[in-house]
Amino acid sequence: MRAIDHYAWSNRWRDWHPTEKLLPAGCLLILTLVLPPLSSGPLILASMAWATVYGAGVPMRALLQVLAAPAAFLVMGAPFLAVSISFADGFHWQWSSEGWWLALETTVRALAAVSCLAFLTLTTPLTDLIALSRRLGVPAGLIELVQLVYRLIFVFAERAITGQQAQTARLGYVRFDRGLHSVGGLAGNLFQRALHQAQRMEIGLAARGYTGELRVLNTERALSWPRLMTGITWVGLLGLSGWILGRGGS
């Protein structure tokens, strides 16, 4: 999370209006859902990686780290889509060629969709997205919930790292059974701290006259129509290319 927040604030496209990044990424995300995945997915994944690394200047390592967890989840779950199970006459299972094809399409489509979200999170700070959400009329309660959760993620991540370091210094992970005990103790401690932190935050907000909405200063950024139209044109070309390749493959 700290690396994501760091690159979101320090990339080359940091000063762009959030619409210039949100609209193309959102349109590409929609294209991953409606176009044939095997023709459009690799194009969208490659274009998002190029825009993130060579356009915004985010290191490739940071992008791969963001994509690593979803990719690992997809790779582990994909084989189960290729297995056909039947209980009609006992328990039977077999590999299905249609299932393998479905697993491949699902994996490519999901990775392309995740790349759109990775591009947005690595190039746009949350404060910019919140300011844009307010202008678009998103309910204030939902925005405040996102802000509070985002803040608490960093608080508890720091405490989790500190607690794990302390347990490691006390040989809490030298054996598998001790490691499980340490992880359980750390999780229980973080849960108690979460409740305590929530109570402190509620008291602090009430003391500051909280009325249901947190207001922060935001820098107004001018919308660049040339950049926005370039992004939309780029999305259109990718969509057209994916559609043509999909028809050619069918």
TrEMBL record:
Similarity comment: family membership = Belongs to the CbiQ family.
Chief location bin: membrane
Q: Where in the cell is it found?
A: Cell membrane
Transmembrane stretches, by residue range? 67-88, 100-124, 228-246
Q: How does it sit in the membrane?
A: Multi-pass membrane protein
What superkingdom does the record give? Bacteria
* CDD domains linked: EcfT
Q: What keyword terms does UniProt attach to this protein?
A: Cell membrane, Membrane, Transmembrane, Transmembrane helix
- The protein's name is Cobalt ECF transporter T component CbiQ
Q: Which Pfam families match?
A: CbiQ
